[in-house]
């Protein structure tokens, strides 16, 4: 008799994801009428609004729980047919995500490191007892490396989006990150 072996890595990954399930607060802007329609639609099927959203999101992103491949397919078709799916802006955030950068570790944290590094250099100029010369040289090398990393990202992004306002795009990435973390 042949024994069917489950995909152990997905089982383990799903268990890890399940451990992180918790209540999240997401703000949705709806008219009173749409809110009532949504509540009625959910009520007709014995669902809460939260359960409906949990299920839709799971299908849309191929999440921890999904209702099946057809549902995932339809959710993605819906997404791609909406204005935001058909005509996405070529933003820095999209560029970072599509090219595989970790938005925080590979981008925002490095920008913070550069700013903090320059602040430490200013502190050193005011009071040289704060750091020794060797520490300052290491810091300058780090700042130079970080600036090269950001310059490479900036150059790659602006090659495809010449008219983009880099500072505004960086701010949008910051805003997205803050909202994501909330």
UniProtKB/TrEMBL annotation:
Keywords: Coiled coil. Residues 136-163 form a coiled coil. This is Molecular chaperone GrpE. It comes from Ruminococcus intestinalis.
């Amino acid at each position: 008799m042949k024994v069917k072996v489950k995909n152990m890595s997905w089982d383990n990954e799903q268990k890890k994801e399940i451990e992180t399930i918790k209540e999240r607060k997401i703000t949705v802007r709806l008219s009173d009428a749409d809110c009532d329609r949504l509540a009625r639609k959910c009520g007709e099927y014995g669902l809460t609004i939260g359960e409906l959203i949990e299920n839709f999101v799971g299908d849309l992103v191929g999440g921890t729980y999904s209702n099946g491949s057809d549902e995932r397919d339809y959710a993605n078709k819906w997404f791609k047919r909406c204005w935001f799916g058909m005509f996405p802006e070529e933003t820095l955030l999209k560029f970072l995500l599509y090219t595989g950068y970790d938005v925080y570790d590979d981008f925002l944290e490095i920008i913070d490191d550069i700013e903090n590094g320059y602040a430490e250099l200013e502190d050193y100029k005011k009071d040289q007892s704060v750091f020794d010369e060797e520490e300052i040289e290491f810091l300058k090398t780090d700042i130079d490396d970080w600036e090269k990393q950001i310059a490479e990202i900036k150059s790659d992004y602006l090659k495809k989006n010449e008219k983009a306002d880099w500072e505004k795009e960086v701010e949008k990435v910051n805003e997205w990150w803050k909202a994501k973390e909330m």
